[in-house]
Amino acid sequence: MHIIVVAIGSEGDINPMIEIGAALKNHGHQVDFLASGYFENKIAEAGLNPHCLGDRKQYEEVVKNPEIWHPRKGFQAIWKSLKDYVPQQYELIESLLKPEKSILVATSLGFAARLVAEKHQVKQATVHLSPSVILSAERPPHMPGLKLPGILPYMMRKWVVDAIDRHALDPILKPDMNRIRENLELQPIDKIMSTWMHSTDQVILAFPSWYAPAASDWPKNHVFTGFPLAKSKAGAELSDGLRRYLADGAEPILFTAGSAMAHGNKFFETARKAAAALGKRAVFVNRFDRSLNRENSDSLYYSEYEPFDLLFPKVAAVVHHGGIGTSAQAMKAATPQLVVPFAHDQFDNAERLTNLGIAEQVRSMNVEEWQNKLNRLLGDSSIRSSCQDKSGLIERMGDSADRAACAIESLAT
User: How is the beta sheet containing 359-361 ordered, strand by strand?
Assistant: First the structure.
């Protein structure tokens, strides 16, 4: 088969799709992989054919926008940075199509792939990496400032979720999407996020059902595959400096605000004070925020990048933004988590991790609150036990990327 993978987003979106693409390649298929040019080398190193959706500079300009991480403005800011590239993405996908052989695989915001599938009647799988993108009245995603308790009547919850779709999301997306569709001689649409974004062929839920049980109003053609976790190449190691730092003392607390976070100054300043108040050593991982003090000491090690699958088992706790990739890696490592959500799916993930008994969450930059939550994470044996339990569940699921590849192959029949 010929697979065209379209991955829109940051490292947390790209890495699991690379794992799925690599699994498809291992099954003998040709894989063309479309993502930002920022990830070109990583895609090529996985043995996939990279095709750039914008260059490295464009990606870096997007992550510099502070509104990307605003809890209410974040989605609109992302769409503003994405919308002008959808026609170019469409043309690139169209140019790669092989009639009666190609299958499209796209992340939630891979709208260009959805358009190509519709226009050319090509099979397509939509991959949802986290459950919050599914607008459900039965199991509403957790959003900042909006809590819909299960005791509310279903019709009331449905009215609220429909209103969000109709009055908050569609007004952002519909004008641009329908202009693009008109140029492609496609009929106008609405309910883009609640209905249209889900492929009519297959919806892959790249997380386990115990993390987010299916609801009756989820897409009927869904399949759970588990987390397709990013894995380091054979022989990969942590950086020399970090390995020496880890060997020189007690397990540190790891602090990271996300691979694309360029505005984490307050996060890391709070982290520095909380670690000092606890008397704990710390590791900071951040690539983009140049305003941070990067001076290392006996109690703090700063790194731009480390492979999380190798690092997480070696730390006492992980304090992070709540991205699905970071959350899943910490679960796999059985490491307690303190989640400090900024935007997007992070609030929903924070709530789910807390409900699983493996995490605490904070919504402020209050040092004392961080200190208290971290003390509980580090000292509560029930949290440690829950972490081990969830790690075991992930381990027993086996290769989730391979399971996703098998699901995609089923579209050929």
Answer: 300-303, 282-285, 253-256, 317-320, 337-339, 359-361
